[in-house]
Amino acid sequence: MDAEITLTVDGQRRTVTVDTRTTLLDALRERLGVTNPKKGCDHGQCGSCTVLLDGRRHLTCLALAVAHDGAEVTTAGGLSGPDGALHPVQQAFLEHDGCQCGYCTPGQVCSAVGVLDEIRQGHASHVSEDLEAEPGLTDEEVRERMSGNLCRCGAYAGILAAVKQAGEQAGEQAGQEGAA
Amino acid sequence: MKELTYHRAEDAASAVALVTGDPDARFLGGGTNLVDHLKLGVTSPTTLVDVSRLPMDEVAELPDGGLRVGANVRNSDLAAHPAVRRGWPVVARALLAGASGQIRNQATTGGNLLQRTRCVYFQDVTTPCNKREPGTGCSAIGGYGRYNAVLGASEACVTTHPSDLAVGLAAVDATVVVLGAGGERRVPMGDFHRLPSDRPEQDTTLAHGELVTAVELPASAVARRSTYRKARDRASYAFALVSVAAGVDLDDDGRVRDVRIAWGGVAHKPWRAAVAEEALRGKFLSEESVREAAEAELAAAVTDEQTAYKVPMVRNLTALTLTSLAEGATR
Question: 2Fe-2S ferredoxin-type domain: which residues (chain A) (predicted)?
Fold first, then answer.
């Protein structure tokens, strides 16, 4: 069975007819030519296909495209500004060498944006001592929250530093805006 | 993968009617388990009825202090809900111990309870498996058995239920609200999942076409002082070897007024340790008294050389969980 769906991908409205068995990942990559989300394991174990779906980090390999008709998809490629300026998370990955071969990087970057948003909203994690307290931006917290994204090169040390830096920058910016 | 007809459900009743009337139809929720099974060939429905957009996505406080959780509430939203964090920490902790941040954003409350075993043979269609293909045999008996059950298994199936949330819900006496062709019914968590017996293809007591619409959490002192601990091969993003959901209410002298213990990773369903609970009521809670109570429950355990480790592991984890709760730990 075929179905016509419309997705907004990195700000562009795209309409495409897909077989109902098509995953969102295959629709993006094979039908729309959006190759930022990567196919790693294709079973929800590696995180390389992560995008922001309606603003939240989401695997595209474990989602049928037809079920997400109308969704807004932001890939790592859509995070930069209209002038090409890098998103703070992207910039931090560059500065801390959070990439090696680069294959997992778009998923890592999208997941990191989601992680920082979840921390900002006060969501606890498995390693948070107190479910009701504001979570900190510690190594332990970032490692736990990023555990759904694997890096076979083992660039974790750089990824950890990058996520923390981007989180600290966002926190400082929020603090300055609050004070102004 | 077979040709697939996709319906987006208009309302719960018509979704139930569609699936009830078609043995090859399935409900689609967050899809995190079902979409994987479609790819693996573990299941081959010809029709999917997508219930993920039905308005069953609210967490509502009930007049008696309980909570009604819509079946479409995402795992991450339920874990983050202020009332859950305050009144049912075991539920929030169980959710946060499961899957990854991405999957928790996708997976629903109802779907989490209906996820299927991660037994390697169930997921490998080239091997016999009574749960996947009734009557073909069980490859896990005498095969790779480290994750196998130690309580309530049968000759037909020795697998364990994979959900963390379900273990937390079993501990707090949750009720599952189910809509079927004949109307709504309410199923206590203890009766929702089943032991394998000679019908391991049936994970739950639901009939084909019955839809989980909500889960209700009753308020209690044991739920307020509760937590979840999980032993696993990695620090994060791995299924349980064993897990413990527990809550306790102590009187002024420090004796156990009430206690709840449920175990994951040991059986085909969340294992409510009723024998251990009874042994602890009225007693002082100590590492020793909890170990003794857990051992009474585990007298029924059947192990082999691959699963023998689970008995001391779940006993010790129960002691650690309850004694730290009694000492006021929040985690």
Answer: 3-79
